[in-house]
Design goal:
Elements lengths: L5 E6 L3 H16 L3 E2 L8 E6 L4 H14 L10 E6 H6 L1 H6 L5 E3 L7 H10 L8 E3 L5 E3 L4 E3 L20 E5 L1 E2 L10 H5 L3 E2 L2 H13 L4 E5 L7 E2 L2 E2 H9 L6 E5 L8 H9 L6 E3 L7 H7 L5 H14 L4 E8 L6 H14 L3 E6 L19 H24 L5 E9 L5 E6 L4 E5 L8 E9 L4 E5 L15
Parallel strand pairs: 1-2, 1-3, 3-4, 4-5, 5-8, 9-12, 12-15, 16-17, 17-18, 21-23
Antiparallel strand pairs: 6-7, 10-11, 13-14, 19-20, 19-22, 20-21, 22-23
Bound molecules: 5'-deoxyadenosine and iron/sulfur cluster (SF4).
Length: 470
Amino acid sequence: MTRTRRAYVETYGCQMNISDGELMEGILEARGYGIADRPEDADVILVNTCAIREHAEKRVLGRVGQLKGLKADNPDLVLGVTGCMAQRMGDDLARKAPWVDLVMGPDGYRSLPEALDRVRRGDVKSHETVVPAPSGRSKKRGPQLTVLDLDTGENYQGLEQRRTSDVAAWVPIQRGCDHRCTYCIVPYVRGPEKNRDPLEILGEVAGIAAGGVTEVTLLGQTVNSWVSGDWTFARLLRSVARVPGIRRVRFTSPHPNDLTEELVEVMAEEPAVCEQLHLPAQAGNDRTLKRMVRRYTVESFLEKVEMARKAIPDLSLSTDIIVAFPGETHEEFEDTLELMRTVRFDDAFTYKYSEREGTPATRLPRDQFVPDDVAQSRLERLIEVARGIQAEINAGEVGRVEEVLVEKEARDPGHLLGRTRRNKVVAFPGDLAHVGSYRTVALTSTTGATFAGEAVDAGRPGALTAVAGD
Ligand code: 5AD
Ligand code: SF4
């Protein structure tokens, strides 16, 4: 009898990548693989990578180097690198890391089981490499396989994700991106925008709800530009919000330009759509936005914010900001701080510009690139301003009573961690049996970023089957 092969998937990066990790697990499980919880227990290790910033890539390369040590105990172990960095580096990664057996970009996952079989059979046309064995003896390694075709027809239809959370589910509705923001590698590693079929999406959401999960987050690189025939994103969002059993719907990340009145109306009208919007601004200066090719101005961004806030009172807003884009002057950076003060985001994800080979921004004049110490101090200033605003907003929310979906045990034993509809994190004393249920929680204090609270209801242990309106 042959032993069941076991796969371990380790994911880095954004929610789309986490969702892709679940997809790879689902694809392998459907082909008879078991899923291992630790790399030591696996016959196949896949490191699912992100390419958005250099820092993320460096971390992953270190981790892959560490995992190769497991091959000493298990010579048949297959080590693969998947995802955006695999796509970006391709054959170069295979050459630099000869212990990697498979390099596969995001459009290759459908053929993952076949690719692993080919690696095992040595049925690979690519280069042969010799690397020293851990003992110091030279050991001949098998050939490496790289799967890097960008497939514009790949819409991931019919592939099943392995969902690990009993509480909330990610649902990718779109892959790739048709924008060309000049700093961004995504369009090059994930290809053009590909949208999934609405009925398939709704079927998937119905299945998720039938399994007792009540919160879904729709995912896409520019999720609100999703369109299919006469279906707009707003229509899809309304339909998802009305799937029986679904009690909370979120979506990320929208592009400000596609935040339409129709969409905001659906957000305001559908009780299941949460009062939360992540709206990446990237910068608060028109010249920078223009050179980023974001296709909006500070004024039009602010108009979108106003439109959303008018329709959805108490809307919680978050954003992404990049500092030190090449050519950003000190005054232009100050404009970004001004945008933060004007909008007063509840949360901000802040980044230093990271040069990504092959993107248009790399061709800007070298003398415009902002030195790292300047970039670092801008980042620190931005974080200080963003945190200050966040702390003020959150201090003003202490005393509120909120519906919290319990996600997991908090680090503090005897405490639970959950989120409000407005995506605020709350820790409160409670029993693990309440994970997956909704509790009514009074917010008693804040650290600035998160809240502590006290449940003010009796609670219903393990209420995984909670449905809207109960
Ligand atoms: N450098 C820094 N940040 C980047 N992002 C995307 N590309 C880069 C880059 N080259 C940020 C953007 C995006 C978020 C997911 O990552 O803010 O919204
Ligand atoms: Fe990158 Fe811009 Fe597309 Fe977002 S919209 S994935 S930032 S190119």
